[in-house]
Amino acid sequence: MRHAVLVLFLLLVGCGKVGDPLPPFIRVPVPVSDLAARQNGQNLVLTWTNPAKNIDGSAADDLARVQIFSNNAVIGTVNVNAPGRAQSYEIPLGSAPGPERSFSVQLETSRGKLSRISNSASVTPVEVPGRVTALRALVDQRRITLQWDRPQVHPELANAYLVNRIDPADEPQVVSDTRYEDSRYQPGRSYSYQVTALRNVQGGTVPGIEPAAITVIAEDKTPPQVPTGLDIVPSDTGAFLSWNDNSEEDLAGYRVFRSESANGTFRPITERLNPTSGFFDPGYRPGVYYSVSAVDEFGNESARSAPLQAP
Description:
Elements: H1 2-14, E1 36-40, E2 43-49, E3 63-70, E4 73-79, E5 86-92, E6 101-109, E7 121-123, E8 133-140, E9 143-149, E10 160-167, E11 173-175, E12 179-182, E13 190-201, E14 204-207, E15 212-217, E16 231-234, E17 239-242, E18 251-259, E19 267-268, E20 278-281, E21 289-296, E22 308-309
Antiparallel strand pairs: 1-2, 2-5, 3-4, 3-6, 6-7, 8-9, 9-12, 10-11, 10-13, 13-14, 13-15, 16-17, 17-20, 18-19, 18-21, 21-22
């Protein structure tokens, strides 16, 4: 009996139907569809995204090379960095911009399979401004101020400027003047900037020749301006001193000095800074001299104003 049951079981198992054969994988990469071309200084830059899949849906894990075409001729080959990742390729322009140029790319796998040709991308090279000159930085009044001069080469083409804070990185800014102020900083930290001249072309911009670079430590060592307009009004109980307000945003206050002579030693009347542009001196005596300095939040102090003799 046991033998009959075993035989019946084996017969039932042996009657299973074999499934249909699976189609072979077609490991041909999906073609690039987002090829773009732009000018950057004296180079043309092609950008695209490598496909993540083959045309059969399998992972494009054997991408090897990208061939670069111009006018149906291969002008370069670059290794694929990774599937699904953006990639770029630079083409030097040479001495003259030249006419419009069109490009396309084609992917090749390690097994020699080729994708279809990508979309076409065109760009018309133009003359660009040169490098900005005399880039400099000043830390003062709670900001880092960059200033520069227009390029010596094709300054007439510089319509705007790209300011890029690269360390620590921040959003690039486009300005029309040869000046930029950065208030987003931490005192004592180092900051690096690049400034590039831009040319406006058909609603867009083309960067000029390589950027100028500068690194600055955010330490305010710039003193305020010397106070002006010092005036003295005597009274029965002392003298009231007044002067013009300083315009610095980081002003902490003023220091008032007194001396027995114009060339004598001027000593502060009080240890504390005076917060306003007015001061009453109960120790006033006719004939003494007064002078005022300005001090900012970082301890930078201006020179003293010219001595003024009290009536």
